[in-house]
Design a protein that fits this description.
mainly alpha, 199 residues, transcription regulation (chains A, B), TetR/AcrR family transcriptional regulator (chains A, B), homodimer, DNA-binding, HTH_TetR (chains A, B), Tet_transcr_reg_TetR-rel_C_sf (chains A, B)
Amino acid sequence: MSPRKSVAETQHTRQRIVERSLAIASVEGLEGLTIGRLANELGMSKAGVLGHFGTKVSLQLAVVDAAATAFTEEVPRRVGDVRPGLPYLRAVCEAWVSYLERRSLPGGCFFTAAAAEFDGRSGPVHDAVTALNALWQRDLRVHVRRAVTAGDLPSDTDPDQLVYELMGVMLALNHFLQLQHDEAAPARARRAFRRLLGT
Amino acid sequence: MSPRKSVAETQHTRQRIVERSLAIASVEGLEGLTIGRLANELGMSKAGVLGHFGTKVSLQLAVVDAAATAFTEEVPRRVGDVRPGLPYLRAVCEAWVSYLERRSLPGGCFFTAAAAEFDGRSGPVHDAVTALNALWQRDLRVHVRRAVTAGDLPSDTDPDQLVYELMGVMLALNHFLQLQHDEAAPARARRAFRRLLGT
DNA sequence: CCTACCGATCGGTAGG
DNA sequence: CCTACCGATCGGTAGG
């Protein structure tokens, strides 16, 4: 029998599970993630892993949550103190390119992969992924609007159209980097962003 | 014991299996496809299904092949007899938008989904998906070059850059349509293509 | 956090 | 194309 663990130790174990899950899921997908593999790689029993979450869906939701936190730390938070509107847009797009260049996760952008995996399914995981995707696009749209108001983007700019095109450049970067290992892709993404957001 | 089937009947059954597999895989992914589910939905035994392919990987490859054939029929073949270069590019981009608008597959573009699913894996399925993706981009690039040569696109056009941006618009259309059911997305895609390829 | 176990399902095979 | 079956693994539970 294992000795009783402190709350801190329990939370640390939980964090280890989630981190490993995130790395596995970025390659195999959230459905390809299995309790047995997780237990094996962490040197634990399946029951020990599952005890922290109850069900696989709860584990998946914890992984989505951790991915959102990591993404926030690695992209928007790295933008630094730049003004809202166009300066923010340019900085956050550059932060996105840099995030994928750094290869923080072996499978590239977790949310791009999760969006493709769950877009045809239903349930809490789909809903969580969709909600976070919406948040990200809302953030972009807010700053596009401010840029237009400030006169930094043409007054006839359609914010939804620009968000659509920015998203396209981002999705393409993940695609070219992950599927084709195209090392020229980051430069192409930067050039495309420059064309959309001015020099 | 079932009566002996003719070659034609055997091929018909095989085709039924592949078609159903394609519909399932476009939603659940090629890994989420299972022999048991397939057998159940087709009213066959698992052995009856698997007998046509031998292994699950062979079935997956047959599905990729069928998806490629269907894609060719539904996109490049619908372009009609338009001149190579810029006219072809405009027509094939419009055919792509129309293809996704028609919702031929419940999960959207099969290759976009398969690319995201297999970009971190290795093996014959990954290789097949990657090769078809490369073919598609090569086709686009060939016509971009011709358009430049013909003087229909600026002489300083970087073909790989334009292919990258065209791919971004395509990936974004699938993303907005599948994940967000955004019915305005096709119009945004058309507008983005127009901006990239002239009015 | 463990051992021991559950029914269901996985891909695949033998034999006809 | 079927029945019958294989070992492995799935998510999850009981009980401690």
